[in-house]
Design brief:
5-stranded mixed β-sheet; two-stranded parallel sheet; alpha/beta; 4 helices; 2 domains; 232 residues
């Protein structure tokens, strides 16, 4: 009679190994702090896959705790990714807004300067009287042109006229002389450098917009203010 007994199965004594995918998940999750959360997206994916494989291998593959840590850390950085992105975006948006306001102010002064020069051409090449310069040109430009977009005021006008040019013949004025500049003086404001807005309105107080007697509009930085010509 044949012996049909069989030897008992030999237990698998091979040491279990740690899942490389679990380790990768943890590393990618930690790197999320340097990548603004971008690597954490992959860390979360690898962590989930690693956990599934560890469960399927029934003890021959370890690293479940590492995979879980990778998932948690990766998930954290994915959640705060929008906050990080917003924090990076806000300064950019602020700078763009500031630049747009500067460009708008330049456009305003160009239109005001053109109106002043048209007035001069219609009045034997004489500039308007400084005390009534806004009234003299208001029919030539829209009312909003008198308002600087960066000015925090309720005044009708956010610009001033160089009083030294009042009623002068253009031929007697050096074309590099300041004609218009930003001011908080209100309607028909006129005077000199003492009326300039300080600190400057534009781009974190770094830039003022001025117009010369020849109609040229300039962005002037703080260190350049002393070089401006006020005397015709």
């Amino acid at each position: 009679m044949a012996d049909d007994s069989s030897p008992p199965p030999v237990p698998n004594t091979a040491p279990s190994k740690t899942s490389g995918m679990a380790i990768t998940s943890l590393v990618l999750g930690i790197l999320g702090i340097l990548s603004c959360g971008l690597t954490a997206i992959f860390g979360l994916t690898f962590g989930i896959i690693a956990l599934v494989k560890i469960k399927e291998n029934k003890g021959t593959l370890k690293g479940g705790g590492i995979a879980l840590a990778g998932i948690i850390i990766s998930g954290f950085f994915i959640l705060i990714l929008p906050v990080i992105a917003l924090g990076m975006l806000l300064p950019v948006l602020g700078a763009a807004k500031g630049r747009a306001q500067t460009i708008n102010c330049i456009s305003n002064e160009k239109q005001l300067a053109l109106a002043v020069l048209i007035y001069s051409g219609n009045n034997t090449n004489h500039f308007p009287l400084a005390a009534t310069w806004c009234d003299a040109i208001k029919s030539s430009v829209p009312a909003n042109v008198f308002k600087c977009p960066a000015a925090n005021s309720t005044a009708q006008c956010d610009y001033a006229f160089n009083a030294a040019l009042s009623g002068m013949d253009q031929a007697d004025v050096n074309p590099q002389t300041v004609m218009l500049f930003e001011s908080n003086g209100g309607w028909d404001a006129h005077g000199g450098a003492e009326l300039m807005v300080n600190p400057a309105r534009h781009e974190h107080g770094r830039i003022s917009v001025v117009t010369l007697a020849n109609g040229t509009v300039m962005e002037v930085r703080q260190y350049q203010l002393k070089t401006l010509r006020w005397d015709p």
